[in-house]
Specification:
Helix 1 crosses helix 3. The protein has three domains: about 45 residues, 434 Repressor (Amino-terminal Domain) (Orthogonal Bundle); about 130 residues, 3-Layer(aba) Sandwich (Rossmann fold); about 130 residues, Rossmann fold (3-Layer(aba) Sandwich). The protein is α/β, with parallel strands linked by helices. The N and C termini lie far apart (about 60 Å). Strand 9, helix 11 and strand 10 form a beta-alpha-beta unit.
């Protein structure tokens, strides 16, 4: 099929007047059609002709001119410490991007590598480009303090929060997640459930321990501190902690691991001791890290962090703020669902 020749002078970027001439309409009509102006009264046949002419000329509206005219950039800033380089990046960005795209917006993403100067510069550049809001995301659930210049636009913190609650935030419901993981084991009849928790003091460790305690209480079981140990989130820590629990005088018949990497280490400890999963000892993880959970043998039952849902909620919240004006900051939590596989 022959390619139609461009109808603009060689080397010149097509403008709205070129589209109007090719379509046989006025530049105003082109503007109304390409900006989807409601109530313009333009016939559908004319709209199709205008859009076909714009495609033929490869015309793109000038975003800068549109920004000056409407004061809307249709862009949302997304600043992360190092999420973009983690296994969870896909789901977080997918959730945010889909919500943004549905509202005709794009994400402007910067991974700062946890460098404060890059972070501050990224926020400044986004503000110069008139982003309509900023998502400030952390690799793991923790307290943060965004650059003060973020205050110029609506902001939501993703998988992090401010100590004083002055910024809107969305985080996993760690307490309900810990309870869900523990109850998956208790509901199978286990009464001695070991817990390999994350490092003490981090929000995830605090919340999941509280959920673990609530599940025991709901099942009429007393909390036994000797069944709780702490690791640094690595497979090696999971191996060492599980080995310690299983060599105790009264070992657990089930283990809740604070993340899937430590569950992988627990699997190795169980194999060395000749114990079968789940026949001898059941195991539940946390995170639903597909590269680990789905490929262990047996596949690991785990609790999923709601990365997609958090990304989507953050964008929807920013859009709502833009439409309604600034509202009181919301501290929102999202449930962590149980993903059953073969280890319980």
């Amino acid at each position: 099929m022959a390619t139609r020749v461009m109808r603009t002078e060689e080397g010149r970027v097509p403008n709205i007047g070129d589209v109007a001439r090719l379509a046989g309409v006025s530049p105003t009509t082109v503007s109304f059609v390409l900006n989807d102006v409601v109530g313009s009264g333009i016939p559908e046949s004319t709209k199709r002709r205008v859009r076909a002419s714009a495609r033929e000329l490869r015309y793109r509206p000038n975003a800068t001119a549109r920004l000056l005219r409407t004061n809307r950039s249709h862009a949302i800033g997304f600043v992360t410490d190092e999420i973009a380089s983690t296994p969870f990046a896909g789901d977080i960005i997918k959730g945010a991007q889909e919500a943004a795209w549905e509202d005709g917006k794009i994400l402007v993403i910067v991974d700062t590598g946890k460098k404060r100067k890059i972070e501050e510069s990224a926020v400044e550049m986004m503000l110069e480009r008139r982003v309509e809001g900023i998502i400030y995301a952390a690799m793991y659930h923790r307290a943060v303090e965004p650059p003060t210049s973020c205050n110029e636009v609506p902001v939501v913190l993703l998988d992090c929060y401010s100590e004083d609650g002055s910024w809107a935030s969305v985080v996993p419901d760690e307490v309900s997640g810990g309870r869900t993981a523990t109850e998956a084991l208790l509901n199978k009849g286990h009464e001695r459930v070991g817990f390999i928790n994350l490092s003490p003091g981090v929000p995830a460790a605090i919340g999941r321990l509280e959920g673990y305690k609530r599940a025991l209480e709901a099942h009429g079981l007393a909390f036994d501190g000797s069944l709780v140990v702490y690791g640094d989130g690595t497979a090696e820590a999971g191996y060492e902690c599980a080995s310690a629990l299983l060599r105790a005088p009264a070992p657990p018949t089930a283990i809740f691991c604070g993340n899937d990497q430590m569950a992988m280490g627990a699997y190795e400890a169980l194999r060395e001791l000749g114990l079968r999963i789940p026949e001898d000892v059941a195991v539940v993880g946390f995170d639903n890290l597909e590269l680990v959970a789905a490929h262990l043998r047996p596949p690991l039952s785990t609790v999923a962090l709601p990365h997609y849902e958090m990304g989507r909620w953050a964008v929807e919240y920013l859009i709502e703020q833009a439409e309604r004006g600034r509202v009181e900051p919301v501290q929102h939590t999202i449930d962590c669902p149980y993903v059953e596989r073969g280890s319980v």
